[in-house]
Amino acid sequence: MDTVLQDIVLGNSDEIVKKWINEVEKNSVHKYSLTISEELFDSTNREFVNVIFVSVQNQGSKDDLKDFAERIINFGWPLNYLTEGMQAFRRVTTNFIIERSETLDAERFKQVLESVDEWVDPIVNFLVSEYSGSWESTVSLQKVALQELSAPLIPVMDGITVMPLIGTIDTERAKLIMENLLEGAIKHNAEVVLIDITGVPVVDTMVAHHIIQAAEAVRLVGSTCILVGIRPEIAQTIVNLGIDLSKFPTKSSLRKGFQSALEITDRAVVNLKDKGNEMENMIDSLNKG
Amino acid sequence: MNNQSCIPIKKEWDIVGARQYGRDIAKNLGFGSVDQARIATAISELARNIYLYAQKGKICFDIVEGVNKKGIKIVAIDEGPGIEEISKVMEDGYTTSGGLGAGLPGIKRLMDDFDIISEVGKGTEITVVKWLR
User: Fold this and answer.
1) Considering only residues 102 to 131 of chain B, which have any Cβ-Cβ distance to chain A shorter than 8 Å?
2) Among A69, A105, A213, B25, which residue has the fewest nearby CB atoms (within 10 Å)?
3) Which Gene3D superfamilies match (chain B) (predicted)?
4) B33 close contact with A: CB closer than 8 A
């Protein structure tokens, strides 16, 4: 650490800050002005440059930087605002020190570059890793959330379970569907399993293939699989593709599928109120007789 | 011709991006929901073929104008292993991957125009067009 250079930079911080702000504003006039108000941009710039100076001053301490990075990530500032800001700082500082230097030979020049790099690079690395860390954690959280949503199995009544599918089916999800379907069919002792594809946007040959395989596997464990929620446009594309779904029953809606499931399990939906009336009628007719 | 744009296919999720993009173009052109589903399905098949057999490639979209008609042109380009016997892959039920074997003949039935150029070891280019009626 070259303390002489550090003193030059810290001693003239006002001037460097002014130059840096000019540089940053020049670079980003068109980029951010649409989405971010001028005051916010100014105040963020000031905060940013203060954080840089604090970090140059006490090497190693990154508390302020961490706070700043957290806030700026939360606001959703683009990462290139930070990297461009650091590049501007590097340019401005190097120029500033070189302009101040009386002797400028190769050795001195090298020294200046090295020192500035020593200040700038750790900050850049830190900011980039904070950013990518926050992205990574978001992505992995979403992945987990998606997986939780991916293949739920709902036992609606004794012997009847429903698996509603929503969204795109990829290979990984298809595997999960198969596993959950079979596991659930056995666990809930399901006689009929309804697969609802109302929410699946596109049924191509791969999706159809996986559904056929799942249905076949369900048949092997002794249950019946009914494919429900086939929208008209999906029915047409399936016919165009030439996919044979004749091996297992299909229905246009979950309601119709559920009705056939009830029939298969020898049950029916009975309206209690009507039944009451029927009884009354019967009693009435007996009384009359 | 205008509005040409390509979507690279490298990951399985790129398939979703490509068909979403194609569906949007089809919707803007005025295709009905059934044709939108047909186009999206065809893109899905094309993109999946690239992903399965060539690992990477791209899907290009174009709006074409004929006499008194407009349509969407989709070109799937890869530099994969190529197809040895094109007549065979156009048969229903022929598959090398354990799938249903309905992909290419299915695409042909879903779309209006279908053209395939393939050279073993060099790659495959499939061009399909759906006309707006």
Assistant:
1) 102-103, 105-106, 109-110
2) A105
3) Histidine kinase-like ATPase, C-terminal domain
4) yes
B13 close contact with A: CB closer than 8 A: yes
Provide mean pLDDT across the span B113-132.
92
Residues A37, A8 share a domain: yes
Among A118, A147, A176, which residue terminates a domain? A147
| Whether B80 contacts B110, CB under 8 Å | no
Question: Do A241 and B99 count as a contact with CB atoms less than 8 A apart?
Answer: no
What is the extent of the structural domain holding A162? 154-273
| A-proximal residues of B, 38-77, CB under 8 Å | 38, 40-41, 44-45, 48
Rounded CA-CA distance A82/B18 in Å is 32
Let me know if residue A10 belongs to a domain: yes
Reported as type and span, the H/E element at residue B59 is strand B57-66
Q: B114: pLDDT confidence band, cut at 50, 70 and 90?
A: very high
Which one of A129, A147, A165 terminates a domain? A147
Mean pLDDT of chain A, nearest integer: 85
Distance from C-alpha of B21 to C-alpha of B17, rounded to nearest angstrom? 6
The pLDDT assigned to B41 comes to 94
Residue A30: pLDDT band (50, 70, 90) is low
Domain identity same for A15 and A79: yes
Evaluate if residue B36 carries a pLDDT over 90: yes
Say whether residue A33 is in contact with chain B using an 8 A CB cutoff: no
B73-101 tens-digit pLDDT: 999 999 989 888 888 888 888 888 777 77
Q: In A, which residues are within 8 Å of B76 by CB distance?
A: none
pTM: 0.71
Q: Which of A146, A202, A212 to mutate to test the interface with B (most CBs of B within 10 A)?
A: A202
Encoded tokens for A201: 């946007």
Contacts of A145 (CB under 8 A, 6+ apart): none
pLDDT band, residue B1 (cuts 50/70/90)? very low
Q: Looking at CA atoms only, how far is residue B100 from chain A in angstroms?
A: 6
